[in-house]
Amino acid sequence: MRILHTSDWHLGRAFHRVNMLGAQAEFIGHLVTTVREREVDAVVVSGDVYDRAVPPLAAVELFDDALHRLADLGVPTVMISGNHDSARRLGVGAGLIDRAGIHLRTEPSAAATPVVLGDAHGDVAFYGLPYLEPALVKDEFGVDKAGHEAVLGAAMDRIRADLATRAPGTRSVVLAHAFVTGAQASDSERDITAGGVAAVPAGVFDGVDYVALGHLHGCQTLTERVRYSGSPLAYSFSEAGHRKSTWLIDLDADGTVSAERVDCPVPRPLARIKGTLDGLLADPGLARHEDAWVEATLTDPVRPADPMARLTERFPHTLSLVFAPERAPDDPSVSYARRLAGRSDQQIAQDFVAHVRGAGPDERETAVLREAFDAVRADAVVREVAR
């Protein structure tokens, strides 16, 4: 069976101030063409179809167009909700849409109820694991601790139990939206650290033939059977080095996986350039970036006059301007933001306690801080779902 694995469309999202709807529509066209020309048997979309719980009307219209075009091909499509989606909104009409071959899986309770498709070699069971917010689904899965590994592990136990009841030789595909240990994140993914630890080990997914992951925006191979497709478009300058693509997966009769990357259309390349303003404007080696979307980091010791206006004369698509004067590490003028770069909320809070009283929090106090941050994040998720 040939499967096209994609995720993280983020319909409705902008790139800085650039409306990306046209580029997203171009990707949908590319997706449909790939399905038709490469004789794909099934499409899987592993979450974050939309960029937010209440997407703009234009994004909903594009999604509707995508569903119609995929249904017209007669190729089954399986989709799950991600942490950016409203599971309830995305899942509206799922029972009716099923009849058109579009299978929306947004309910955690249905994780072990597969979409079963067949080919010349027998059945393939597709299990949809929508994003599982630990605080909201721990009771559903009967786990004591609201952690990502615990709830995903319990959901996978249900899937393996269902798979064990199926005919010998039944192959299996799991769609999941999660942060798996060993993968590389970028700046454009929303934090999912509620529950203490966000990452789950790849071993959670043992026992199935292929795991189609969503959430992280870089295309990645964790094992031959566990992969991220990444987002089809770049949504932050941290993705400047990404090659945007989908996975074309061939699942053989015995469950062997072979994979090929299919490149996505690139609306405009990304470039991150750094130096003094005069240096950036004069450097002939930067000519290749003159048509790119640019993030410029200026290292001038004193902020120059009209930097954006001067930059856009040479780089007309400059979208982001960062000031990072080159100073010695012990210079007292180094900004507070730079000192905090890369540190989690938990670490910042613990550092603050140490600064105020001269000693960091003990084990009990650390646990209290963690519970407080988890409660705030979980409350934010509940509020967004309720919108």
Compile the SSE list and pairings:
Blueprint: E1 2-6, E2 14-15, E3 18-19, H1 21-37, E4 42-46, H2 57-73, E5 77-80, H3 87-90, H4 94-98, E6 102-105, E7 115-119, E8 122-129, H5 134-141, H6 148-164, E9 171-177, E10 210-214, E11 220-223, E12 226-228, E13 245-251, E14 257-263, E15 270-275, H7 277-282, E16 293-298, H8 307-314, E17 318-323, H9 336-340, H10 345-357, H11 363-386
Parallel strand pairs: 1-4, 4-5, 5-6, 8-9, 9-10, 10-12, 15-16, 16-17
Antiparallel strand pairs: 1-13, 2-3, 7-8, 11-12, 13-14
Helix pairs in contact: 1-2, 5-6, 10-11
Terminus-to-terminus distance: 39 Å
- Proportion of beta-strand residues: 15-25%
Query: How many individual β-strands?
Result: 17
Give me the CATH superfamily of the largest domain.
Metallo-dependent phosphatases
Q: What shape does the CA trace take?
A: globular
Low-confidence stretches: none
How many H/I helical runs? 11
Q: Any overview of this molecule?
A:
There is one protein chain. With 387 residues, this protein is of the alpha/beta class. The protein folds into two domains: 262 residues, Metallo-dependent phosphatases (Purple Acid Phosphatase, chain A, domain 2); 57 residues, no CATH class. Helix content is 32%, strand content 22%. It contains eleven helices and 17 strands. The protein has a six-stranded mixed sheet. Strands 7-8-9-10-12-11 form a six-stranded mixed sheet, covered by helices on one side. It has a three-stranded parallel sheet with strand order 15-16-17. A hairpin with a 5-residue loop joins strand 13 and strand 14. Helix 1 runs parallel beside helix 2. The longest helix is centred in the C-terminal third of the chain and has 24 residues. The two termini are 39 Å apart. The mean pLDDT is 90.
